[in-house]
Amino acid sequence: MYPKLFLKLSYFLVLFLPLIVWSNRSISINASSKILEESVTQLAIQDVQNLLEKACNCSVKINDEKADIQLNLPLPQAPLFDKIQHQEKDQVPYFYYPSTHFQWSSKLKNEQIHLDLIGDSYEGIAAALYALLQEKLGFRFYHPRKTIIPEWTTWQLPNEWTWLVKERFVKRGFHLHTMHPIELTEALLDQDFPDGLAMVKEYIDWLARNGQNYFEFNLLNSVDINEWISYAQKMVEYGHQRGVIMGLDISLHMIQQKAFMLYKNPPASFKSKTKQVLNTLDLLAKADWDVYNIELSSTEYTAGNASRREKLQEVILSWARDNQTKIMGRAHVVKHGDAVLNYKGNQSDNQLDSERGVMIHTVMFYEIAEEKAPVYGNENLRHMLDLMDKEQTQRETWYFPESAYWVTFDNSVPMLLLPYLSARLNDILLMEQKGITGHLTFSSGWEWSYWLIDWSIARWSWDYGKKLNPTESLELIFEDKNAVNGVNEVLSLQNEYLKDQELMRYIVAQTVTDEVPKMFIREFHPRPRWRYKDLFRKANQVILDSLQNEAIEPLQQFYEANEKVLKKMWDISFDEKQQQALWEELQDGLRITGLRAKHRHHCLNAIVEHRKSKLEKRNSNHLKDLNKAANIRQQALKIVKNREAQYAYDIPLLTTQRVGHTAYHFGYLYPVSNLHFWEREEGQIQDNRWGFGYKSIWHVRRIIGLGK
User: Fold this and answer.
1) Higher pLDDT among residues 272 and 696, named by residue
2) 382-399 residue pLDDT tens
């Protein structure tokens, strides 16, 4: 009897020994002097040390052999990422970044828990430390300015376990689209912006904490390049210290949205044009950029003189070889047959020297392989998938999707479109299957829970050995299954109504190119089958009935189904303040998306009633629905004002009219602050005004590059 009792007691003590020993409250990060001196690992270790101390309220030291928890870091064999090293991969040139696969193993030794890391590179060690914190120890690096730091008094993990983690993509990161006035646009482009460099470093830290190793943004012509370049040097230097490849998005001679040009007013001769391009590249090179993502066309819808352009491309590639940098370029979703101003020469931006990599771009919340994606004049985006398969055999190929589409589609309306989650996850898994080496996300702002999409994409660029689903990242924040299930229900509703039934055609705001004369019309986001002006003035009863069936009734159905789910979610709350704040932000985004559908329902009803009254030769009662739309807008405005008080960055920077570096003289959430597009739509019906200039916030000439 006693031996059995002794064995049981011994087993109990071994099982719970870490909880007892943990009262000593000590962790040690063990590393060689080489690891502690290299900036990539040095900065990561210092950051992790600080984060652990906040979580455990305990001693976290370096190389303390007496500590209860020992994190043992190996000396890696792979060289640090320094300069571009061109290598061959299946006969296709690509640029080098060390492997960052890693494995953690935990064992109990002499009453201490030892976590032993196996990793090939310094960059992998840094990624492994942050992954341990986020995926195993309760930290959540969900936003550049906001982190969930857990509070625990016991070690959170079992004594013995092994965890193998693989990167899905060698290069993985984010493009901040600073052609638009988003959170970091001014901080990146203005060397005198208050605390600008600190804001940029804060974002680079977020990338590093989430295992991302690539960062780029748009340089604009509005910068004083001679003054700015020394500021850029500091950004690039810090990025390199964090193990991040630093890229710059520029153009050969793109005229729209103040894109930075390698040459401006075209010189008289090819020789003088070449000189200007090389001089500009030499100036940019002072900041030591690793990658230049160069737009070769003048606009998204122009191909230009391809033969002349290719001669300049040869000059640029020769310069890149001499300066050990990588040239990339994006392939637009516009089909070449739809481009205008095609001149003699090669009309494809992608028939290029194999040393130039290509980024296969897709837009909005559509998957590259799905059947319906009615954007930029396309039925779907499968032509981009075909292009990817072709280009992958010729040059380094990355995937370049979006996590938001600011102009009149999602966060500028605003709407929280959850199908970005399912689309990006499905695409990531497809890209991994195809062996695509790079994944770059086109990011356009983080408010209204769009941080969730960027954060999810960053995590999904790694294989953490778990089964993924679109709302898996929310499971890390909210432990309540009902909360996550509710978000999943709304995601299913949005996929069903907004994508499958194509209600996005009716709840997006109209762009300038939707309302110009027909000869100039270009389609960007999904648009209705009929122009609103024609519905209001010319539609017959058959068209009005079709509108009723395919838009007005489904919009009401979506709103009611959305509200039903949100009512269940409303009863869920969290004791922890940060969790509760994030839950309320999600609810605000989902609620205002439903109200947007309801608002469009009433506006379309008003249009139909007005037109029917003309056909039936009676007085119109359309103002009744217009007043209902206005009431819905007022409900939505209350949500906006509540949400604005919670914005992570300076409210005037995001929401007011102001002159900045972009072609848009306001913050990216300015049209949200007063629900501009909603009010404009009511005014169009009220005043029977349908031209693109009606209550427009767009300075069209400046945006397309013809004005200041």
Assistant:
1) 696
2) 999 999 999 999 999 999
Tell me how far apart the 2 most distant CA atoms of the chain are, in Å. Answer: 101
| Residue 347: predicted pLDDT | 33
Helix or strand (DSSP H, E) at 148: strand 146-148
Band (346; pLDDT cuts 50, 70, 90): very low
Q: Are 297 and 304 in contact (CB under 8 A)?
A: yes
Run of H or E residues at 615:
helix 577-615
Measured between its terminal Cα atoms, the distance across the chain in Å is 91
Phi-psi region of 324 (alpha: psi -120 to 50; beta: other; left: phi over 0): left
C-alpha distances (whole Å) from 109 to each of 16, 115, 304, 312 are 14, 10, 68, 63
23 — pLDDT class (breaks 50, 70, 90): low
3-state helix, strand, coil in the chain (%, to 5): 45, 15, 35
Q: How far are the Cα atoms of 122, 654, 679 from residue 414, in angstroms, in the given order?
A: 41, 14, 13
Task: Tell the residue number behind the tokens 């109504």, with chain if given.
Answer: 497
Domain-terminating residue out of 139, 163, 187: 163
Return the number of other C-beta atoms located less than 10 Å from residue 479's C-beta.
11
Residues in the chain: 708
239 and 332 fall within a common domain: yes
Q: 476-507 pLDDT, tens per residue? A: 999 889 999 999 999 999 999 999 999 999 99
Q: What confidence score (pLDDT) does residue 10 get?
A: 43
3-state SS track over 190-209: CCCCCCHHHHHHHHHHHHHH
CA dihedral sign, ordered 528, 533, 534, 537: positive
Q: Which domain holds residue 269?
A: 171-477
Q: Nearest to residue 647, comparing CAs of 681, 626, 673?
A: 673
Strand locations in 482-601, DSSP E? none
Residue 18 has pLDDT above 70, yes or no: no
Examine residue 680 and state whether it is found in any structural domain, yes or no.
Answer: yes
Q: Are residues 224 and 119 in the same domain?
A: no
Indicate if 300 and 319 belong to the same structural domain. Answer: yes
**Cα–Cα distance between 151 and 147 in angstroms, integer?**
13
Inter-helix orientation angle 577-615/481-494, to 10°? 30
Number of domains in the chain: 3
Phi-psi region of 660 (alpha: psi -120 to 50; beta: other; left: phi over 0): beta
Domain-terminating residue out of 104, 135, 163? 163
Residue 157 and residue 136 in contact, taking contact as beta carbons nearer than 8 Å: yes
Report the pLDDT value the prediction gives residue 344, as an integer from 0 to 100.
34
Whole-number Å distance between alpha carbons of 324 and 322 = 6
Average pLDDT over the chain reads: 90
Predicted pLDDT at 19: 44
Shared domain for 240 and 188, answered yes or no, is yes
571 and 552 in one domain? yes
Q: Are residues 456 and 503 in the same domain?
A: no
Residue 486 lies in a domain: no
pLDDT at 25: 77
